[in-house]
Amino acid sequence: QQPVLTASTISGYMKIVKRVFTYALQRQNIKYIPAFPSVKGEHNARGYFNIREYRRLWSRARKLEGERFEYRVLKDKNGTEQKGSYFAEGTCYEGRLIRKVTVTRELVELIVFMTNSFIRPTDIKNMQHKHIEEDERDGYNYLRLTLPTSKKHDKPIVTQKVAIKVYKRLTSHNKEQGWGIGADDYVFFPNASTRDYALKILQMQFDALLTNLGLAKGLRGEKRTIYSLRHTCIMYRLLYGEDIDVISLARNARTSQEMIDRFYASQLTGEDNVGMLQSRRKRIKH
Fold first, then answer.
1. What is the pLDDT of residues 89-102, one digit of tens each?
2. What is the rounded CA–CA span in Å between residue 207 and residue 41?
3. 49 phi/psi in degrees, rounded to 5
4. What are phi and psi of 142, to 5 degrees?
5. pLDDT in tens, 162-201
6. Strand order in the sheet with 96-102
7. Interatomic CA distance for residues 199 and 193, integer angstroms
8. Do the Cβ atoms of 19 and 27 come closer than 8 Å?
């Protein structure tokens, strides 16, 4: 049975084909480029963790620190290998063992930091101490993250106040481990062999945590990943922020207003903003 290609996959292939035609035109091998059809796909809302799920995430991550998990691929009754899953070490001996993962202190800090900083997972692996400054304005304390360009966005990011404590804890932890905390040292796993591997460690730990909690999928069946922490940060501002300016939110999250409206604000219901809907203008007394 042929797998069904998603709209994004088809669009990716079409872009490659178009590049080939463009190259051929530049070399004068062809006289014109044919029209390419537009690929339309469903714009699914970004999955996030509600308050109850978020609390379960960091609470369980703290309890599991030091625990080991095994990623095993099991077989069905016909002997065909199925998609792998994580099991607490020593609880399953079936199937093929792919890897072992140990939950570390960094996972707890990652969950809180990403949910309070608007950053993408790629920012985690590239973030160095020189990119972070603590500041205060109008009575509000925050971290200013001047990170490398991400998806053509290069503006600084302003975090929530909680991110300050996380950053200081993580810096102290790195110092205790004997890892560098200089301007050019990385914030998460500065000792990792490569930055891609540093992010991979966190992704594997997070996947093991989701499986342990039964939160690997959302209510709509959407797959949850480490990226869901960024979605959670943005959704919490829309849900619980007061007088949120969507343009400012989009710029701070290094995305567009259209993306905020299409993938995040589209999930808001009347019940989420019942206070605003039932509010009344104050009458001016003459």
1. 999 999 999 999 99
2. 27
3. -100, 130
4. -160, 170
5. 999 999 999 999 999 999 999 999 999 999 999 999 999 9
6. 85-88, 68-73, 96-102
7. 11
8. no
Radius of gyration from C-alpha coordinates of the chain:
23
Cα distance between residue 22 and residue 33, in whole Å: 7
Are 102 and 202 in contact, with CB atoms under 8 Å apart?
no
The two structure tokens encoding residue 278:
């039932």
Q: Provide the token pair at 7.
A: 């709209």
**Three-state DSSP state, 232:** helix
What is the layout of strands, in order, in the sheet containing 132-137? Answer: 132-137, 140-145, 157-158
**Beta bridge mates, 71:** 86, 99
pLDDT digits (tens, 9 = 90+) for 205-255: 999 999 999 999 887 788 899 999 999 999 999 988 887 888 999 999 999
Q: Are 190 and 180 in contact (CB under 8 A)?
A: yes
Q: Could you count the other beta carbons within 10 Å of the beta carbon of residue 173?
A: 15
What are the respective helix, strand and coil percentages of the chain, to the nearest 5?
Answer: 45, 15, 45
